[in-house]
Amino acid sequence: MSLSGYTLPVFACASAMAALHWLRHRQPLTSVSVDLIEPPQIAEISIEQVAGLCNNTALAITRSEPGDNLDLTRNTPIWAMVQWRVGDGENVIIQGGEGVGKQINADNQPAIYAYAQKLLQDNLNRMLADDEKITVNIILPEGRSLAVRTSNSAFGVVEGLSLLGTSGISQPLSTPDQLGAFRRELQHKATRFQSLVFCIGENGLDLARQLGINPEQLVKTANWLGPLLVEADLLGVKEILLFGYHGKLMKLAGGIFHTHHHLADGRREILAAHCALAGLKSEDIGVVFHSPTAEDALKHLKYLDAATGSDWVNQVYGAMAEAIDSRSQEYIQNHSQRGSNATVCGSVLFDRHREIIIKSKIGCLLSKKLC
Question: InterPro entries, from UniProt (predicted)?
Answer without folding.
Answer: CbiD, CbiD_sf
